[in-house]
Amino acid sequence: MENIVNIIGIVLFMSIGILIFMLLGKIDQIKELKESHNKMLRSFNDLDEQAKLIVKTDLELNKAQEELDKRLNGLNTLQKTSRLISTTLDEEEIFRRLDQPLMSELGFEKHLIVILDADKKLHCRIESGFSKEEILYILSNLEKDTNLYSSLREGHTFSSSNSPKQIKERIIRIFDVEHFILAPILTQEGIIGIIFIGNRSHTSPITEGDEELLSILANQIGQSLENAQLFEQVYRSRQDLESKIQDRTKQLAIALEDVKKVSKMKSDFISAVSHELRTPLTSVKGYASILMSGKLGEISPQVKDRLEKINKHSDNLVKMINDLLDIARIESGRVEMRLLKHNVSSIIENVRDLLTPQMKEKNIQLKTVIAKNTPEIFVDISQIERVFINLINNAIKFTPLNGTITIKTELGKEMIVFSVADTGIGIKEEDLPKLFNEFYRVENEINQNVKGTGLGLTLAKNIIEAHHGRIWVASKVNEGTTFYFSLPIINNDEKISAESTKEKV
């Protein structure tokens, strides 16, 4: 019995040991399961946080994408607007192009552009989302709100995201919006208008990108309007200038006609007087010659000397009268220029022969430098010789003993330029513009001792211009004087015409 009890005790003990061992195993399994559960819970929490972060990031990306899309849309709209308003200089056309769906494409429900008129009053040019009453209310309140208006004049831009609370509340009250941007339109002269965009409270708030876009748009509108105003000013100035030019041209034309009439009257008067003087002068010269010849009786040496002076002065007067008549005829177009072909060297040699005695008296050397291939010229030989004679005579008169006179020719594309240079006393610069005036004589010692009419250079000028040329002078005191004149080179067709016809000038 005792053995049975022992056996049962042993079995019971072993059973309890086994149970305890099994229980310990379960406890270990429970711990492992609990640890696994905790790991899974932590993993789940991590996944939940990551999911929340992903959702948040996705929302932010969506928001950023929306903002980017809005910015791109605004930039595209801004580009289109800029292109449209920058291709016209008409102020009305600028506002017509702005008053299109372009402003709405910026993504705002309301927009308004007001411009200062000539009286510095705000005037609505473009609006959307406002009634007429609301616009009148806005304009009235903007003009009354001196602080806000002064800030805008100083170039400040206001928005619902960065404006001081007081100003923000005033703008919201005036425009009846929750989100807004209010910017000045500026030029170099200052503020010329205001641009406004806004949304009600249920829309997204204003961003820095919106402010930047509107500032750029305001600047572009300001530049376009300024360019249009400048163009208008230039256009009006041009119109005024053209009108003044036309008026002045008419006045000058009338004055020119008056000058032509006076010139013709002068020429006619000189011609008439010269003709009237010729007859008595011819008589005086004739009677002097008769008396000098002794046909009316012997005359004393003293009387003969006086008669020779009368004859000499009569010759001078006749020469002056002839010069005056020639000038008057050329100016009035009553002289026929007999244009024939002549050799330049031959013309100069003929003049040299005529003036050699005067040059020998002062031992003056005459040099000629004729350009190679100088063509023959079509001129009235007698008139052109008079030009050379007048110019060389002047050179002889003002060149001292043992001086030099040089005649040169230079070939141009259409003209031959002649020059007559001396080594004489020269002419003051202030006297040069007056040399070709009738009766003008330079005040110097030589002119005081040598009489002259002051018509030689005037006659030379008229003859050269009658040949469609030009005459001018260069001189330096004590270094000499050079007279230049040009004559046209005539082509073959013109030569044939010149040879077969007479040109009336």
Tell me the structural class: alpha+beta
Main CATH class of the domain at 336-504: Alpha Beta
Task: Identify the CATH architecture of the domain at 336-504.
Answer: 2-Layer Sandwich
Specify the number of helices.
Answer: 12
What does the model show?
- With 505 residues, this protein is α+β, with helices and mostly antiparallel strands.
- Among the domains are: 85-236, Beta-Lactamase (2-Layer Sandwich); 336-504, 2-Layer Sandwich (Heat Shock Protein 90), CATH 3.30.565.
- The protein contains 12 helices and 14 strands.
- The strands form 4 sheets. A 5-stranded antiparallel sheet has the order 2-1-5-4-3, sandwiched between helices.
- A hairpin with a 2-residue loop joins strand 4 and strand 5.
- Helix 1 packs antiparallel against helix 2 and helix 1 (2-86) packs parallel to helix 6.
- The longest helix has 86 residues, at 208-293.
- The relative contact order is 0.05.
- Mean pLDDT is 77; it is low at 492-505.
